[in-house]
């Protein structure tokens, strides 16, 4: 499950800074939503409110019917992948992926099962003992995805996860993330300013401008090809 309802969501930082204004969207379980729009249009703010890292000024966020506004981030069953994937440099790939589960007091065998499975899905089996500095950019990005996958969360949030990669790797990782989504079918909200990413990955695209939704539709509907 992972049905999301965003009803009249507004975020005001200070008196005059309304980053998101009356945002309305229903996301069905298993969708891959791409939020796209120019820098400063409110994409990250929207994502951070869903994650619980930013307070919602006004409106309701529901997940599978449950009101989430006041639920702390650690109880939200949401996994997030950032642009700066911030792996722990002193920890192995295995321990990077296991960390969130250790913090949540998962049993050792369950941690091992999940990390091994995620490593298999992401083609990281050979690299589990390595430190992040001994990995390529693409491999590091896979570890960052692995940390999200092992959580087995209801919702993935991704904030420009590919923008630090070169063009070739971006192309490759785009395909991999899509493949991953086909396999796991976890509801995903993905933020980018890159229209190609939106076009190739989204089940539906949400175009934002100045904190407001301008258009919602399938890639075909939005980009008219
Ligand atoms: P995007 O992710 O689309 O680049 P943001 O959500 O980061 O946009 O920003 C939306 C607007 O909110 C911008 O005008 C930005 O300056 C403002 N903003 C973002 N974070 C803060 C903050 N912590 N305090 C005040 N204003 C902020
Ligand atoms: P134990 O503490 O019983 O020896 P753990 O499961 O805690 O076993 O593993 C100890 C450490 O060994 C982990 O923190 C991790 O660094 C490493 N490790 C465990 N399983 C693997 C694996 N499949 N591949 C690589 N490293 C592993």
From TrEMBL:
Molecular function GO terms recorded: ABC-type transporter activity; ATP binding; ATP hydrolysis activity
Domain of life of the source: Bacteria
Biological process terms in GO annotation: carbohydrate transport
Keywords of the record: ATP-binding, Nucleotide-binding, Transport
All copies of domain ABC transporter, residue ranges: 4-225
Keyword Transcription attributed: no
Record bears the keyword Transport: yes
GO cellular component, one term: ATP-binding cassette (ABC) transporter complex, substrate-binding subunit-containing
Protein name according to UniProt: Carbohydrate ABC transporter ATP-binding protein, CUT1 family
Organism of derivation: Edaphobacillus lindanitolerans
Portion held of the full protein: 1 to 225 of 376
């Amino acid at each position: 499950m992972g049905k999301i309802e965003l009803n009249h969501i507004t975020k005001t930082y200070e008196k005059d800074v309304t980053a998101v204004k009356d945002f309305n969207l229903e996301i069905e379980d298993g969708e891959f939503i791409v939020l796209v729009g120019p820098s400063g249009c409110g994409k990250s703010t929207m994502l951070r409110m869903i994650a619980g890292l930013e307070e919602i000024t006004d409106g309701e966020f529901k997940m599978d019917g449950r009101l989430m506004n006041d639920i702390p981030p650690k109880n939200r069953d949401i996994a997030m992948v950032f642009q700066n994937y911030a792996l722990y440099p002193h920890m192995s790939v295995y321990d990077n992926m296991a960390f969130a589960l250790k913090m949540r007091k998962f049993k050792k065998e369950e941690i091992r099962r999940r990390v091994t499975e995620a490593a298999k899905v992401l083609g990281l089996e050979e690299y589990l003992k390595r430190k992040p500095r001994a990995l390529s950019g693409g491999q590091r990005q896979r570890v960052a995805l692995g940390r999200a996958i092992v959580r087995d969360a209801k919702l993935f949030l991704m904030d420009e996860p590919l923008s630090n990669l070169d063009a070739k790797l971006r192309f490759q990782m785009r395909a991999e993330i899509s493949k991953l989504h086909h396999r796991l079918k976890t509801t995903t909200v993905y933020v980018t300013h890159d229209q190609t990413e939106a076009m190739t990955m989204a089940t539906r695209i949400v175009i934002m401008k100045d904190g407001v939704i301008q258009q919602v539709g399938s890639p075909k509907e939005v980009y008219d090809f």
